[in-house]
Amino acid sequence: MSLKKVQLLAWLGLCLGASAADDFNHFTSVGELGLTITNFGVIGHGYNIEGQPSCLYKQYSDLDFEQVEHFSYGGLWIGGVVDGEPRVSTSVMDGTFGGEGWEWNNVPTAQDRAGAILTRSTFSDSPNFHPNAVSHQDFLMSFTDTSRVVPSSGEEITNHTPLGLRVDLDTHAWNYSYANAFTILDLTITNVSQGMDPAGQGWTIDSLFVGYWIDEAVGNFNLNNYYEPGRGGWSWYDNLAGIVLTDDPSPVLGDSIWMAVGYDADGDNGYSESILGCRFLGGSAPHVGDPRHIRPYANSWIWNRDYNLDFPALVMPSNEEGRYAAMQVHPNLGDTAYPYGSANTNSWMMLASAGSFGHLLPGESCNAVFAIGCGSRDFVPEGEILSGLERLQRMAAPLIANTTWARIAWDGEDKNRNGQLDPEEDLDTDGLLDRYLLPNPPPAPAMAVEVGDRELTLYWKDTPESFVDPILGEADFEGYRIYSSLRTPGAQGTRTLVAQFDLDNGIWPNTGLEDIQVRHSLGVDADSVEVQGQWFRYAFRMENLLSGRPQGNWLSVSAYDHGLPENNLPSLESAVTENWVFVFPGSLPAEDSATRRKPGVYPNPYKGRASWDGAGPYERLIWFTHLPSRCTVSIFTLAGDFVDSFEHDASTYQGEDVQLIRDTRDQVSQSGTGETPFIFSGGEHAWDLVSAHDQAIATGLYLFAVEDHGSGRTEVGSFAVVK
User: Fold this and answer.
1) Is residue 436, in this structure, part of any structural domain at all?
2) How many domains in the chain?
3) How many CA atoms lie within 13 A of 381 on its CB side?
4) Are residues 546 and 688 in the same domain?
5) What percent of the chain clears pLDDT 70, i.e. is strictly above it?
6) pLDDT band at residue 567 using 50, 70 and 90 as cut-offs
7) Are residues 122 and 236 in the same domain?
8) Which of 464, 594, 482, 490 is nearest to 542 (CA)?
9) pLDDT in tens, 328-382
10) Span 199-254, pLDDT tens digits
């Protein structure tokens, strides 16, 4: 076992033995970036929690090759000078998982931050809704570097001289289609050294720098599963770290951002074509007059190696002085001085930092804001003559665009980034500098679904049409789009655009909304219809839906606006997860069907595995179809031996007795947008081919009996299993 793996296991063991307040199970789930956040300064979980994202993008894609993990773990570094001595407090660093490097510990600091992670949301239907929420998913926590031992274990933190700091960390994530690929880390850093000083005076911390160290390890677990025995082909050593210089695809234009990035060098045959970035967004400090003087830095080195013959300037810092110096470096980015290309792949570390935040007196606070973001890699022709820096800038263009939205969000009304509210910047005329402002798409409409026999009718309300964008100050609704899960298996993309309807106002395609109004689509003499106790203005029928899939067929109606092309603002669209429903089309209950059919099974025969099956013995299923509303289904061998039975009730059935459907529900429940409906047709029931004795059934012919609780009638049938 490698040294790195031994250290990772030691780190996880320390976590598991920690106090109840240590929290490493929260992760962002509203957008496409799934990032684990802890309340002790660490981000990611070291690839030690199977089924939970560490830094996963895109976490809700239906395409395996798009689900890419980007780093195992990362952590906060803060450095400063006390009495002429450099000190750096780190939550994790090369080669240490516990003891030295494990220097931030959660602490209760206020009534609503009792050591644990507090969750808030701007979603009005979320159980975490809070009027003070900033984003669709906020995490709030606090931790300090003041302890010389790990509180959970009593282990001494060697070589740790505390700066005497408390950090209040707020993280923010959104599900907007243009802002779902990043998480903002907003740190308020306070000098609390007076609590450590026997005289109660504390000390001044000079030349403060703040940053995040990241062990980037980009790969796709669907291709090389780190959790499989033997690590499934996983490699730590096929990555590159880099620095994106500007916020423009060309390195000679735009603002200097010095964003640290990491990526898999060869892309793993298309399964790891994604890039990670850590970007400084801004901040403020009491003795720095203009926040634009706080500059970003980026650095990189090979894991746990304090020498580098190929790139001698890129070496791991091995002590406090070295770590403090590493946070203030602008490395030479020339082709011979910096690693570009597959010849230089390794286990590279990233460090994104910013400073100086000047000095902090006891009791004073400063603010530092970073974004962790991801993006797909842009294709750059191999034949094009570019320097390594230029090629990296071009490749990272989507990441640059994604993290630029993070910067726009943080800037809010402060358009010139001078830290002051200038008169022309006060959008809401409240006299306050408001941050975290993003153009809002119209909200997704409320929906309802009525299921027929392999068909459905989708209903939705017209409330998005009156939505006023708080930034633009006008109602800019343009139209609706209807999406579903992929209707063509194996097709590229994550969803199918079923239909689009927009206002007839000169903006393409000018379909008008008449075809989806219930008066036209349903042929009723009314402007709206009542469904499930609510009134809806629009309806859309869908037929010949795919059946049998354990993840169902998800459906969504999004609303989008016309954007503001003159200000380079694209049309904005609500997220498909905001109102999606999962529908399991199939037969209606036998007594409700227009043509009653005998109960049956599909696929029949079941050959080895169906296309929807997973790898495990509990990750497969067949469907019993044309069932009565309430019945008992019993399964027997051809010899008459009992195999299994289950009760079916169309009014309550949710697929809970099959793991594949449960897994889908669990994943969807993490989206954070409230309760997601799962709608079944009522005449079908899934079975996982596992006997009542918890054994996978063997190849053979099986009999089944369906006892109708309403009529008392019993019908029989058969199905075959071929392995």
Assistant:
1) no
2) 3
3) 3
4) no
5) 92
6) low
7) yes
8) 482
9) 999 999 999 999 988 899 999 999 999 999 999 999 999 999 999 999 999 888 7
10) 999 999 999 999 999 999 999 999 998 988 878 889 999 999 999 999 887 777 77
> How far apart are the C-alpha atoms of 79 and 88, rounded to whole Å?
4
Compute φ and ψ for 373, nearest 5 degrees. Answer: -140, 165
Residue where a domain stops, chosen among 584, 611, 639: 584
Residues 6 or more apart whose CB falls under 8 angstroms from that of 247 comprise 254, 255, 257, 400, 404, 407
CB atoms within 10 A of CB 290: 11
Total-model pTM: 0.75
d(CA 578, CA 227): 31
The per-residue DSSP string of 433-479 comes to --------PPPPPPEEEEE-BSEEEEEE-SGGGG-EETTTTEE-EEE
Domain match, 504 and 595 both: no
Handedness of CA 444, 449, 454, 455 (dihedral sign): negative
Q: Determine contact, residues 528/539, Cβ cutoff 8 Å.
A: no
Domain that includes residue 66, residue range: 3-425
The structure tokens listed for 178 are 């243009």
Dmax of the chain from CA atoms? 89
Sign of the torsion angle spanned by Cα atoms 274, 140, 137, 472:
negative
pLDDT confidence of residue 115: 67
Structure tokens at 578: 């905001």
Residues 196 and 277 in one domain: yes
The verdict on 557 and 415 lying in the same domain is no
Q: Which of 86-100, 358-372, 431-445, 468-482 has the lowest mean pLDDT?
A: 86-100
- The phi and psi torsions of 685 (rounded to 5 degrees) equal -145, 130
Asked if residue 434 is part of any domain, the answer here is: no
Instruction: Say if residue 639 is in the same domain as residue 495.
Output: no
Residues 87 and 185 in one domain: yes
Rounded Cα–Cα distance for residues 712 and 167 (Å): 67
Q: At what angle do helices 397-411 and 388-395 cross, to 10 degrees?
A: 70
**How far, in Å, CA of 499 to CA of 444, rounded?**
15
Summarised one tens digit per residue, pLDDT across range 378-399 is 988 877 899 999 999 999 999 9
The answer to whether 619 and 662 are in contact (CB under 8 A) is no
Give the whole-angstrom CA distance, residue 374 versus residue 217.
13
- Tokens read off for 345: 């792949």
DSSP summary character for residue 639: T
Q: Give 59-76 pLDDT, tens digit per residue.
A: 999 899 999 999 999 999
536 plus 482 within the same structural domain: yes
CATH number (domain holding residue 611): 2.60.40
Taking residues 557-573, report their average pLDDT: 82
Query: What is the pLDDT of the chain when averaged over all its residues?
Result: 89
